[in-house]
Structure formats: C-alpha cells, structure tokens
Design a protein that fits this description.
Layout: E1 2-6, E2 9-11, E3 17-24, E4 33-38, E5 44-50, E6 56-58, E7 66-71, E8 76-81, E9 90-98, E10 101-104, E11 108-112
Parallel strand pairs: 2-11
Antiparallel strand pairs: 1-3, 3-8, 4-5, 4-9, 5-6, 7-8, 9-10, 9-11
C-alpha cells in the first residue's frame, strides 16, 4: 500500500485548496479512503471519508466547507477545502485500512494565515 499526498500550501483565511492523494498497491475501488489531520501537540482530527459505494462523511469541524471525492479509475482521492480558517492549519494525511493495519502517506502541510 502506498499513499502520496500533495496540494498543500500557504493560503489566507477564506481561500481554497485542493489536496490530492495518489494510491497504489491495493484494490482501491473497494476501500474506504479518509483524510485526517494533525497539529503538533494536539490529537489527530478525522476530516472526511469516502466509501466504495459513494457515500461520504465529514467531521463537524469541516462539514459544509470541505468536500471529499474519489476517482476509482485513477486511484485518486481529493479533498476540496473552501473557506479555510486558521484552525485548519495542520499536516493532512490520506489514510486507508487493510486487514486492521492503517496506512498513510507522508502528509501535506496546509497553513492558513493572514
């Protein structure tokens, strides 16, 4: 299993970013894919998940602002982040689980600052 996130950067409050995650090494279309984030010194924050059947779920902190999507043909997961806030500043990870083992990529840093 390999996951590679990209698309992070420095933006101002209210702006948007789109994160991408390239997946390989497992039957992507059959797996739940999630985005989580972590701030140094704080716990992990679950952001969103996309299921093989197309259902999506969001954490309360991002509901209405973030949109998760997947492209099964190209083994990609995306996180569209709109109306970003300073509290969204974190390292963002793409995550999946195989046989009880969690896999994530190297992460991509998102910084929201005036």
């Amino acid at each position: 299993v390999q996951l590679a996130e990209s698309g992070g950067g420095l933006v101002q409050p209210g702006e948007s970013l789109r994160l991408s995650c390239a997946a390989s090494g497992f039957p992507f279309s059959k797996y739940v894919m999630s985005w989580v984030r972590r701030v140094p010194g704080k716990g992990r924050d679950w952001i969103a998940a996309t299921y093989p059947n197309g259902e999506t779920y969001y954490g309360d902190s991002v509901k209405g602002r973030f949109t998760i999507s997947r492209d099964n043909a190209n083994h990609m997961v995306y996180l569209q982040m709109d109306n970003l806030k300073s509290e969204d500043t974190a390292m963002y990870y793409c995550v999946t689980d195989e046989s009880g083992v969690e896999y994530k990529g190297q992460g991509t840093q998102v910084t929201v600052s005036p």
